[in-house]
Amino acid sequence: MSLGDRFGLVGIIVALLGIAAIYLWPDRKWIGWLCLSAALGLVAMWVWLETKPQMFRLYQEYPVRSTFAVFICGGCLAAGAWLLIARQNPTPAPASQPIQTSGELNPSVAKETHKNQAPHTVTEAHAGAQPALHVGNTTPIPTPGRVLPAKGPRLGIGPEAYKDLEDAQVGQWAMEEANKIEQLASEANESSQGTDAAFRSFTTWRFTREFNECCAQDLKELRTEILRRLGPPAKDPDEISAWTLLFPDVKYQEPANTVHQRPVSPRSVIDYAPYLRRLGLRLKRRTTPRSAPRALHFSEEPIAPDKRNMAYNIMVTIKTETTVSVGYILVEFDARLVSAGTDLADSRLVIWPARDTKLIDNTDLTDYLKKCELATYYALAIGRTPFTSENPVHVSASGTVPLHAAKVILFDE
Quick one: which of 75, 255, 256, 392 has the most CB atoms within 10 Å? Predict the structure, then answer.
C-alpha cells in the first residue's frame, strides 16, 4: 500500500469519527478539535506531497526568501487558529467596577440611602418621574415617584430548584409544560401519518432529539417536585404506568449513556401529558380555589340536515362575556342525540364513562355527568384556543326525535 493510500484511509476514518461524534457526544468539544487538527494535518501533508519537488527547487534557488515565506504562512495560520479558539471559548470579563459620574451616588452612600428609604407608591402623579439610579453592580436606587418592579418567580439550581416557589406557580408551570410537550408530540405524530417506515423512523429520531433537549429533564424535575408536595395520595397506577412507558430507564435502571440513544415515541408523550396536567392542577388548587359551575347564555335555531339526513337538526350558539381559556362546556338536551359537533378549535370531546374521564380533576363535572342520561349531553374540554366574546361557540346536534338545548354550563378545569 502506497503512502497516498494510507493517508486516504486515515482521512476517511477521521471523517467518519467526526460524523459519529456529532450524534454520540455532542457536548465533547475536544473530539471536534481533534478531528479538525487531524484534517488540517492531512491537508498540510497532501500539499507537501503535491508540491515537494517545487519546494526543494525553490529552497535551493531562494533559501532565505523561501524560509521567510514559510514562517509568515505558518504564523498566519497559527494566529487564525488561536483567534478561532479564543472566540469559541471567550474569557469571562471581570465584574465591572462602580463608576462615579455626575448625578450618581457614591457606593457606600447609595447602600445607606437604599436602606433608609421608605417605599413609594406608584400614582398617576408620578408618571414621567426620573428613572432609577444605578451604581455599578449595586442594587438600583429608586428615585422619588418610582418603585422597583416586582420580580416574578425565579427557578433555582439543582435538585432543590423549586423549593422556594409556591404551589400555584409550580402547578401552573406543570400544566404549561404538559401543553407544550403534547403539542410537540402531536405535531410529530401527525407529520408521520401515512408515510413509509423510513420517514417515520426519521420523524421519531428528530422528535427524540428535540424532546430530550427541551423537555425531558424539566419534566422529570417537575414531576418529582409535585409528587413530593402532594404526597402518597397523588400516586396513581395509571400515571405510573404511562410514566414508565415514557421513561423506562427510571424503573429498569438503564445505563446513563444509552438513555439519550433510546427513541422516544410521540404517542407515549401524548398519553402522559394529561397526567402531568392533572398533577399540576391538583397542586395549583391547593392555593387557588376552583370556580363554581355557572350557566352560559345560548340560543338555538333549526338547520338543514347533513348527509346523514336526520329528521331534526339544530344549531346551539353559546356566548360568553369574558374570555375563557380553560374548563369544560356542557350542553344538555331534552332528548337523545344521534350526532353532535362543534367549531371550537382544539377542543376535546368528554364522554362518560370513559378512560379519559379519570383525568378530569373537577368532581363537580364528573358527578354531573354521572347523573345525566346517556346520549343527552355534549361535553367538550377547551383546548389551546380560548372561548371569547368575539367568537361564540357553535354546537350542532341531530336526532330522530324533536330535541332542544335545555341548559349550557361552564365548569372550571
Answer: 392
Distance CA 141, CA 249 (A): 50
Count how many residues are written for the chain: 413
CA distance 125 to 121: 10
Residue partners of 54: CB distance under 8 A and separation at least 6: none
CA-closest candidate to residue 405, choices 296, 325, 308, 328: 296
- Answer whether 316's CB lies under 8 Å from 333's CB: no
Q: Is the pLDDT of residue 272 over 60?
A: yes
Using CB atoms within 10 Å of the CB of residue 389, give its burial: 0 to 12 exposed, 13 to 18 middle, 19+ buried. exposed
Q: Average per-residue pLDDT in the chain?
A: 78
Classify burial at 366, counting beta carbons within 10 Å of its beta carbon; exposed 0-12, middle 13-18, buried 19 or more. middle
Q: What is the pLDDT of residue 413?
A: 87
Question: For residue 137, what pLDDT band results from cuts at 50, 70 and 90?
Answer: very low
Rounded CA-CA distance 346/383 in Å is 5
Cell reading at 296:
352560559
What cell does 45 get? 501533508
Domain boundaries, the chain: 3-88, 167-284, 294-411
Amino acid identity of 138?
A: T
Q: Which amino acid is at 317?
A: T
Kindly report whether the global pTM for this prediction surpasses the value 0.70. Answer: no
Region 294-411: CATH code: 2.60.40
> Range with the lowest mean pLDDT among 19-28, 97-106, 283-292?
97-106
